[in-house]
Amino acid sequence: MGYWGDGAVYGAYDRVALWLEADVGFLSRVVHRVNEGLGSLPVRAAGNHFMKRYGHMTSLKIDSAARTIDAELMLKGETGPILISLANYSLEEGTFRAQAVRINREWMQLVAEDVLAKGVAVPGDLGKWLGMVL
After folding, report:
1. Per-position DSSP letters for the chain, written without gaps between them
2. Please, how many CA atoms are within 13 Å of residue 23, restricted to the half-sphere of its CB?
3. Which residues sit opposite 102 in a β-bridge?
4. Fewer Cβ close by (within 10 Å): the C or N end of the chain?
């Protein structure tokens, strides 16, 4: 029998694939660990890409176990950093919500409370990706 013909290697591959399919949360847990180990660097880089017109994120800390997010932003036109703290967040059925929001700019705090109480729709692919890192 050839390398693939005896079924030993192919069979092992099938067992690993079946194990991964059975444990659908496996990839999500790996991404969580990588994200936490890198200090949320991948998420911060993606966030900076989307907000480059408005400024940049100088720090980001996501604690998926405690369900908290802390971020510091430097926005154009602002003289100091914007500090954002979200607690008890959820991402369900394509909607992001946070039960507690703190922002060091009163007007932003009020807008965030109104918007996040209702929830923010997250597009399909972005929602899947965020579901893995949050």
Report:
1. --TTTTSHHHHHHHHHHHHHHH-TTHHHHHHHHHHHHTTTHHHHHHHHHHHTTTEEEEEEEEETTTTEEEEEEEETT-SS-EEEEEEEEEEETTEEEEEEEEESSHHHHHHHHHHHHH-EE--HHHHHHHHHH-
2. 10
3. 85
4. N
Q: Which residues of 13-30 are buried (b: 16+ CB within 10 A; e: fewer)?
A: eeeeeeeeeeeeeeebee
10-60: per-residue pLDDT in tens? 455 455 555 555 554 555 555 555 555 555 677 777 778 878 999 999 998
